Amino acid sequence: MLCVSPTTPGPCAARRPRRPSCTVTTCIGSPRRRWRLARFQDSAAAAPPAGRLTRPPPPSPSSQPLPVPAPRTTAERLGSLREMRRVWWVCGLGYWVQGFRCFPWLALNFHLTRGLGLTPAALQLVQNAGNLPLVAKPLFGVLSDAVYVGRAHRLPYISIGALLQLMAWGTLAVIPVTGDTFPTQMACILIGNFGASVTEVVSDAVVTEFSRTQKAGVLQSYAFIVLAAGSLLGNLSGGYVLLRTQEPKTMFSAFSILLGLQLALSLSTKETLPSSHRNWNIRHVRTSLSDNLRKQFSNLRTAISEEQIFYPLMWIMTSFAVVPILSGTMFCFQTQYLKLDPSVIGLSKVVGQVMVLSLTVLYNKYLKRIPLRRLVAGVQTMYALAVLSDLVLVKQVNLTLGIPNEIHVLCFSALAEAIAQFKVLPFSVLLSSQCPPGCEGSLFAFFTSGLVFSAIVSGVFGVGLSSLIGVSGGDYTSFPLCILLQSLAALLPLGWISFLPEKWTADDKILKPR
């Protein structure tokens, strides 16, 4: 309670007129109120006399405010909208090409097994060694977040990735198929995957940036649909072209032309992203390149250390790493032992991508409302059961049931691979909701590189398991035991399913402050 009482004028009031003053006394009040009153009196005492103006101190250069941009006209806004749509075209084409990479890789597998005569174990080692550049994705993500090329930090890296892939697959299309050129072919595989990793990182970062203004999970679902559509067309056309031409170099040349179109589109598009101009003004006007990189690595380390990001990342990576992959051995079994046509294997991949498309649409409509822990536990169990479908093929139980090998491969061969690919989608939505602003490329690059590293580890486990049990190019008698152990290993991640949030759903879109 404040008591306010006017004071009586003193003797000097007759000589100089003055305003009646007030004395403020605190009758009843808290210490916080008395502190505010004392602060007010101190500021009043320090105020300059009336009529005298004081010049404020000059602001330091570091505290100078950023210039406020002038309001844009309607024509400028429409032009920016058109450029943003072109950015989406570049990003969508990047996902489509990423899925279409199965087209030249199907030819490359036949090229390595039939042209160079690689064994199943050697083929799987080449496949896993070729994925080593994908492990370096966090570096590419940090570079795209912190290092600008001109005033853009996404599209230039897509152009660089497309150029590297064009050089790699173009070289594979012209060099001869001999054992002496295998080191050159291996270098082309590494360079091609290096360029693909750069493009994938930047595309994921663009989707994450735009997903902040969209409904949860929508953009990630669209990206998965475009990716699956490219894989569907790549496998469908790859098997047909390889069966008709029997020439892998034709497929390498066709994919190089597609990469040239992607490169031309990315070079002719102006980058208009939410973070481009803001980050350029805030970060790069006053800080050096080394400071930006150091800060970006620090932000990535801080983001990963958050519990809601760290534990889901650990679960998804270990769930892939502990399961031995037998893809190279199964490919040789289907082509060398069962003598299946390339078109059958390509069509089986098409069926798998149709499954991914269906699961993605189903997730966007219904499954995203299921809590993450329960959803992932069900998906992992389905994956373990799908692995057993290969056991039916290897034991030829399908022939006993009257089902030809071609029909069984078409319907069930890619089932486990499709489920494993779909399992990544809920984690992509989770990380998008938890990713700090400005760290999109770095975090998703770390995520995808962790998945690639887990796939390499699982591939090495698969090669070791096949060699230990005694599976070779001409002897597949122990192959059923490998598949059974693979199915049992797929159930192991359920033991640490508590790493995942129990009640989180895709509708709980929480953006953590930076």
UniProtKB/TrEMBL annotation:
Membrane topology, from the record: Multi-pass membrane protein
Main location: membrane
Compartments where found: Membrane
Extent of Pro residues compositional bias: 55-70
InterPro entries named in the record: BT1, FBT, MFS_trans_sf
Sequence segments annotated as region (Disordered): 45-72
UniProt entry tagged with the keyword Transmembrane: yes
Record-linked SUPFAM superfamilies: MFS general substrate transporter
GO terms under cellular component: membrane
Amino acid composition bias (Low complexity), ranges on this chain: 45-54
Stretches that traverse the bilayer: 157-177, 222-243, 309-331, 343-363, 375-395, 443-465, 477-500
Pfam families: BT1
Lineage top rank: taxon: Eukaryota
Keywords assigned by UniProt, alphabetized: Membrane, Transmembrane, Transmembrane helix, Transport
Stated family: Belongs to the major facilitator superfamily. Folate-biopterin transporter (TC 2.A.71) family.
UniProt name for this protein: Major facilitator superfamily (MFS) profile domain-containing protein
